[in-house]
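Dear U.,

For the methods section draft, I wanted the exact inputs and outputs in one place so we can describe them consistently. I've listed the two proteins in the order they'll appear in the manuscript figures. Please don't edit the token lines directly; just add comments below if something needs changing.

First protein:
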Amino acid sequence: MRYRLDVVAATVADAVQFAGGWLFDRSVAGWEVTVLLAQPSDIRPLKILGAEVRELDSVLATEVPGRLPQALAVNADVCSRDGRARKGVLRALEDRGIEVVVWGDGWPAGQDHGVDPVLHRLSCAARAFKAQALVAAGLSAAAVTPSEIFRSGATEYAPVCADLVPAV
């Protein structure tokens, strides 16, 4: 059985730009990476990173028993706009058995829930594949940096966030 990472993003470009290197690193480490989008468009950039794409509304509408991921990544702005997504993220944070990673500035005020800043250092391959995915998404490959910054509600139960190092 493979570890699962579900990613909730506003757009394909959003996922690639802010979490693309981390998604790639998880994918090549054997994780099943699925990006959930409200309106999937050209998914080629996410395919470059090794991710599958599903439509967010259909996933939220059909809760499949036992389909909980080991990790959940989400754009904070999606949580502030979509009550269903916010509820799911808060439930995952309270569960403490799921690693939760958030990027962006839209995290609702007063919703800390043990979410601390973390830094993911991208592998050389992740930087190369992220650059190609950015170009495919119509963005500049110059945006690739050696690391990506998130806020994380990492669990105390499983070492699934071993590649995340506390930001200094």
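Second protein (the one for the lower panel):
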Amino acid sequence: MDTTTTQNRETGLDEAAALSAATCLFRSLGEPARLAIVRHLALGEHKVVELTRHLGLAQSTVSAHLACLKDCGLVTSRPQGRASLWALTSTPEVLGLLAAAERLLAATGDAVTLCPTYGEAAAR
């Protein structure tokens, strides 16, 4: 038995559940518009109309992505008049994740963009 399996049994961690949750998190951030929304919300609360203007996306598109991010527990909203203000739920943790991603991209020379499965050519 390897040490990882032993550690997981000793701490009660379910490795499969943890990997599944991490995969879902990265999928939620893996769509360019959602990642742009998250990055913009890292600056503070915004209304949908502000996000729409900043990102150049349709209101329905922004709203759909916000609903997805809300379902994932990454954003929350609060009413303000007839509109809602949207914000990150865990700003320090999200900023830490984005900073770690930037450091990893810098360390690998953005090699992931050349990946035949997930790189820029695969997206075309």
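Candidate sentences for the figure legend, describing the second protein: Strands lie at 75-80, 83-88. The first strand starts at residue 75 and ends at 80.

Thanks,
Y.
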